[in-house]
């Protein structure tokens, strides 16, 4: 929810100060069209307004969400004066220190329009996770030959009085005094964030044919369950039908809540606001199979009218990630070429030709160095990924406290030559703060890349399994817009390749028990 506070606005009113209002426009993805999203309240007679009304937006790390803030002065008779505007991506606000970003207002020729301060915070829609354990005593015997096989079913109540199933325990066989395993459930799933809403729990006796017998039920709420942190809570299990029929009916047993604990789940935004930096590294395939860069059939061919597939993939991913990297310096390498002066084959040569410092300034700097390299190196082979993966892994291993996370983008035209070494490198890298994105360009078959992706089967090397899935592979051809709209192609590609990054970052932090640093209030 970005809030806004313009400062030192232009004074357009002859007799008093301006009466400003901020209008937020959101750019439609993959197009140049802007749509009005909402307006703040009007604040009368001030050049330094602090607006109260917030804009609540859905945030997607993997999309470039362009925003435009227009500041206008509203008159009582309906007319308005334009005081200036600011363009910003939502990711820039979230990626800035403590989620605060100040921008100059522009758009009135020859005038200084003041500045706008944007603040973003995440709405914490109840992120707590509960772990609890229950046991039961003296449940009704339902099976003819043995005791019961009890299990529990949890339901949350809905606004309209109906119930939705939200958890089932495992079945404990042949006992009237079962102890169930502890289980974990999000508070949202249990009660939709409403602590006093009814949670209904049914006790069943499991039957192989699926016609489970109802033993009884009891009701509670999240608030009541949470009291069990200091004491055991015992619930009577009641069967309404038995209660009606039998005068002496007491209950069908009891269920005891043995333990109940709550943990907060952290989000990607928590870590970014706590200062975690995303470091972006690029590696580009300079093997001969790409074709001579001067020929229009080459995958590296850049016509005056449109970017090559390599440049498009680089821009699509880089322009989003750069918002989360404060120094905007990106190491960029090539692989599979003969490099001057002596024509040695290299699998990690710096595109800017500076071995001491391979970083380029901004995505534009990477593109410039890439085009420069195409003119100076000789495309060759083979296609080796391991050297550049190990290079980034070496850097990632130096800082593992959660303050730095590395994303390596490899753009390639195809068949990988060092599969065994690459698998070994990825398995090693899977315990480090890094993710790897592979974009395949051109018409080749990319089966080997699918194996590296590890979505279906966890990647392994010499009997060692990857600690987490850190590779995302996509073929660029799946994202090319038929009408030739490159902006749309880039938006589609970025959406898919970046969607897994927040989860991969969280999985690293979680396995290392790293909590986000608290941003200063």
TrEMBL record:
Keywords: Calcium, Metal-binding, Repeat. Residues 97-235 form the C2 domain. GO terms for cellular component: plasma membrane. InterPro entries: C2_dom, C2_domain_sf, C2B_Copine, Copine, Copine_C, VWF_A, vWFA_dom_sf. Pfam families: C2 (PF00168), Copine (PF07002). PROSITE patterns: C2, VWFA. GO terms for molecular function: calcium-dependent phospholipid binding; metal ion binding. Residues 279-480 form the VWFA domain. SUPFAM superfamilies: C2 domain (Calcium/lipid-binding domain, CaLB), vWA-like. GO terms for biological process: cellular response to calcium ion. It comes from the Eukaryota. Belongs to the copine family. This is CPNE9 protein. The lineage of its organism: Eukaryota, Metazoa, Chordata, Craniata, Vertebrata. The gene is Cpne9.
């Amino acid at each position: 929810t970005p809030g806004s506070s313009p400062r030192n606005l232009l004074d357009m009113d002859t007799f008093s100060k301006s009466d400003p209002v901020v209008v937020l426009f959101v750019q439609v993805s993959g197009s140049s069209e802007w749509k009005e999203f909402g307006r703040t309240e009007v604040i009368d007679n001030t050049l330094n307004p602090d607006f109260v009304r917030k804009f609540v937006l859905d945030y997607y790390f993997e999309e470039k969400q362009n925003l435009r803030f227009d500041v206008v002065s509203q008159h009582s008779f309906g007319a308005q004066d334009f005081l200036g505007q600011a363009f910003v991506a939502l990711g820039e606000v979230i990626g800035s220190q403590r989620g605060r970003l100040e921008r100059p207002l522009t758009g009135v020729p020859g005038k200084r329009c003041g500045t706008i301060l944007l603040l973003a915070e995440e709405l914490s829609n109840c992120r707590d996770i509960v772990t609890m354990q229950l046991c039961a005593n003296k449940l009704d015997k339902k099976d003819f030959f043995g005791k019961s096989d009890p299990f529990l079913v949890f339901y949350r109540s809905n606004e309209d009085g109906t119930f939705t199933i939200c958890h089932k325990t495992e079945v404990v066989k042949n006992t009237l005094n079962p102890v169930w395993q502890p289980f974990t459930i999000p508070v949202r799933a249990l009660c939709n964030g409403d602590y006093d809403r009814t949670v209904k729990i049914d006790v069943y006796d499991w039957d192989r044919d699926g016609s489970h017998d109802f033993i009884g039920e009891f009701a509670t709420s999240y608030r009541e369950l949470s009291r069990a942190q200091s004491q055991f809570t015992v619930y009577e299990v009641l069967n309404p039908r038995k209660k009606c029929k039998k005068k002496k009916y007491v209950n069908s047993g009891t269920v005891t809540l043995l333990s109940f604990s709550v943990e907060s789940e952290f989000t990607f935004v928590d870590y970014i606001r706590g200062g975690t930096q995303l470091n972006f590294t690029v590696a580009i395939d300079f093997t001969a199979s790409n074709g001579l860069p001067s020929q229009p059939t080459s995958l590296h061919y850049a016509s005056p009218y449109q970017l090559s597939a390599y440049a498009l993939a680089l821009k699509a991913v880089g322009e989003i990630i750069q918002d989360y990297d404060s120094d905007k310096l990106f190491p960029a390498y090539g692989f599979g070429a003969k490099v001057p002066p002596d024509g040695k084959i290299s699998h990690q040569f710096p595109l800017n030709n500076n071995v001491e410092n391979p970083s380029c300034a901004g995505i534009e700097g990477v593109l410039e160095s890439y085009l420069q390299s195409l003119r100076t190196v000789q495309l060759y082979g083979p296609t080796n990924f391991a050297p550049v993966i190990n290079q980034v892994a070496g850097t990632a291993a130096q800082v593992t406290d959660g303050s730095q996370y590395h994303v390596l983008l490899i753009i390639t035209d195809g068949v990988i030559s060092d599969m065994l070494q690459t698998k070994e490198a990825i398995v090693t890298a899977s315990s480090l703060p890094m993710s790897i994105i592979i974009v395949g360009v051109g018409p080749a078959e990319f089966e080997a890349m699918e194996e590296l992706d590890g979505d279906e089967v966890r990647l392994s090397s010499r009997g060692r399994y990857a600690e987490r899935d850190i590779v995302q592979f996509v073929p660029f051809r799946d994202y090319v817009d038929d009408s030739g709209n490159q902006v749309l192609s880039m938006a589609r590609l970025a959406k898919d390749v970046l969607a897994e990054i927040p989860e991969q970052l969280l999985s690293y932090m979680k396995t290392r028990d790293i909590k986000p640093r608290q941003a200063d209030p």
